[in-house]
Please model this.
Amino acid sequence: MMMTTTIQVKTRARSDAIDITSMVRDAVKSSGLKDGICVVYVPHTTAGITINEGADPAVMQDILEALDRMVPWHGSYKHMEGNSPAHIKSTLVGASVTIIVQDERLMLGTWQKIFFCEFDGPRTRRAVISCTSTA
Ligand code: ZN
Model:
Protein backbone atom coordinates (compact mmCIF):
# COMPACT_ATOMS: atom_id res chain seq x y z
CA MET A 1 0.00 0.00 0.00
CA MET A 2 1.29 3.46 -0.89
CA MET A 3 -0.55 6.76 -0.65
CA THR A 4 0.86 10.02 -1.91
CA THR A 5 -0.49 13.48 -1.31
CA THR A 6 0.78 17.01 -1.90
CA ILE A 7 0.43 19.87 0.56
CA GLN A 8 0.91 23.59 0.01
CA VAL A 9 3.19 25.67 2.22
CA LYS A 10 3.18 29.48 2.22
CA THR A 11 6.53 30.87 3.32
CA ARG A 12 6.88 34.35 4.82
CA ALA A 13 10.45 35.53 4.21
CA ARG A 14 13.56 34.83 2.12
CA SER A 15 14.70 32.40 4.82
CA ASP A 16 11.96 30.75 6.80
CA ALA A 17 11.14 27.55 8.67
CA ILE A 18 7.52 26.41 8.76
CA ASP A 19 6.37 23.66 11.13
CA ILE A 20 4.40 21.24 8.94
CA THR A 21 4.17 18.43 11.54
CA SER A 22 0.38 18.67 11.93
CA MET A 23 -0.10 18.58 8.14
CA VAL A 24 2.09 15.48 7.88
CA ARG A 25 0.19 13.89 10.78
CA ASP A 26 -3.14 14.62 9.00
CA ALA A 27 -1.81 13.09 5.76
CA VAL A 28 -0.71 9.94 7.59
CA LYS A 29 -4.12 9.69 9.25
CA SER A 30 -5.93 10.11 5.90
CA SER A 31 -3.72 7.47 4.29
CA GLY A 32 -4.95 4.86 6.75
CA LEU A 33 -1.37 3.74 7.32
CA LYS A 34 -0.88 1.70 10.50
CA ASP A 35 2.74 0.54 10.34
CA GLY A 36 5.27 1.73 7.80
CA ILE A 37 7.21 4.74 6.69
CA CYS A 38 6.30 8.28 5.78
CA VAL A 39 8.54 10.18 3.39
CA VAL A 40 8.16 13.95 3.12
CA TYR A 41 9.79 15.22 -0.05
CA VAL A 42 10.36 18.80 -1.20
CA PRO A 43 10.35 19.16 -5.02
CA HIS A 44 12.23 22.47 -5.07
CA THR A 45 15.86 23.48 -5.68
CA THR A 46 15.89 26.42 -3.26
CA ALA A 47 14.01 24.91 -0.32
CA GLY A 48 14.58 21.93 1.95
CA ILE A 49 13.19 19.94 4.84
CA THR A 50 14.54 18.99 8.23
CA ILE A 51 13.53 17.60 11.62
CA ASN A 52 14.63 19.50 14.69
CA GLU A 53 13.41 21.06 17.93
CA GLY A 54 10.01 22.72 17.79
CA ALA A 55 9.53 23.56 21.49
CA ASP A 56 11.76 26.63 21.38
CA PRO A 57 11.35 28.57 18.09
CA ALA A 58 14.78 30.12 18.69
CA VAL A 59 16.39 26.82 17.64
CA MET A 60 15.20 27.06 14.03
CA GLN A 61 16.03 30.81 14.02
CA ASP A 62 19.57 29.93 15.12
CA ILE A 63 19.83 27.29 12.39
CA LEU A 64 18.64 29.71 9.69
CA GLU A 65 21.08 32.39 10.95
CA ALA A 66 23.96 29.89 11.06
CA LEU A 67 23.19 28.90 7.45
CA ASP A 68 23.21 32.62 6.53
CA ARG A 69 26.69 32.98 8.06
CA MET A 70 27.94 29.84 6.31
CA VAL A 71 26.47 30.84 2.94
CA PRO A 72 26.11 34.65 2.78
CA TRP A 73 23.65 36.06 0.22
CA HIS A 74 26.32 38.26 -1.35
CA GLY A 75 29.45 36.54 -2.60
CA SER A 76 31.26 35.41 -5.71
CA TYR A 77 28.75 32.95 -7.13
CA LYS A 78 28.54 31.90 -10.80
CA HIS A 79 24.83 31.04 -11.09
CA MET A 80 23.24 33.80 -13.22
CA GLU A 81 19.88 33.82 -11.46
CA GLY A 82 21.53 35.36 -8.39
CA ASN A 83 20.16 32.91 -5.83
CA SER A 84 23.08 30.50 -5.48
CA PRO A 85 23.06 30.71 -1.65
CA ALA A 86 19.48 29.35 -1.70
CA HIS A 87 20.56 26.41 -3.90
CA ILE A 88 23.54 25.68 -1.63
CA LYS A 89 21.41 25.77 1.53
CA SER A 90 18.86 23.48 -0.15
CA THR A 91 21.59 20.90 -0.72
CA LEU A 92 22.99 21.29 2.82
CA VAL A 93 19.57 20.76 4.41
CA GLY A 94 18.33 18.08 1.98
CA ALA A 95 15.15 17.40 0.01
CA SER A 96 13.49 14.72 2.11
CA VAL A 97 12.97 13.24 5.56
CA THR A 98 11.76 9.77 6.49
CA ILE A 99 9.69 9.14 9.60
CA ILE A 100 8.77 5.71 10.97
CA VAL A 101 5.05 5.21 11.58
CA GLN A 102 4.04 2.74 14.26
CA ASP A 103 0.45 2.03 15.21
CA GLU A 104 -0.73 5.09 13.19
CA ARG A 105 1.69 7.39 15.03
CA LEU A 106 4.70 9.30 13.72
CA MET A 107 7.66 8.13 15.82
CA LEU A 108 9.00 11.63 16.41
CA GLY A 109 10.91 12.41 19.59
CA THR A 110 9.33 14.58 22.28
CA TRP A 111 10.86 17.80 20.98
CA GLN A 112 11.02 16.98 17.27
CA LYS A 113 8.98 18.79 14.62
CA ILE A 114 9.14 18.63 10.84
CA PHE A 115 10.17 21.94 9.29
CA PHE A 116 9.78 23.06 5.70
CA CYS A 117 12.84 25.26 5.07
CA GLU A 118 12.56 28.19 2.67
CA PHE A 119 15.73 29.76 1.28
CA ASP A 120 14.41 31.97 -1.54
CA GLY A 121 11.01 33.16 -0.41
CA PRO A 122 8.46 34.29 0.26
CA ARG A 123 6.66 31.88 -2.05
CA THR A 124 3.94 29.28 -2.19
CA ARG A 125 5.68 25.91 -2.08
CA ARG A 126 4.79 22.22 -2.14
CA ALA A 127 5.76 19.17 -0.15
CA VAL A 128 4.93 15.63 -1.23
CA ILE A 129 3.98 13.13 1.49
CA SER A 130 4.19 9.45 0.70
CA CYS A 131 3.02 6.77 3.12
CA THR A 132 4.08 3.18 2.58
CA SER A 133 2.98 0.15 4.57
CA THR A 134 5.61 -2.32 5.67
CA ALA A 135 3.19 -4.66 7.42
ZN1 ZN B 1 18.65 29.64 -9.23
Remarks:
- The chain has a mean pLDDT of 97.
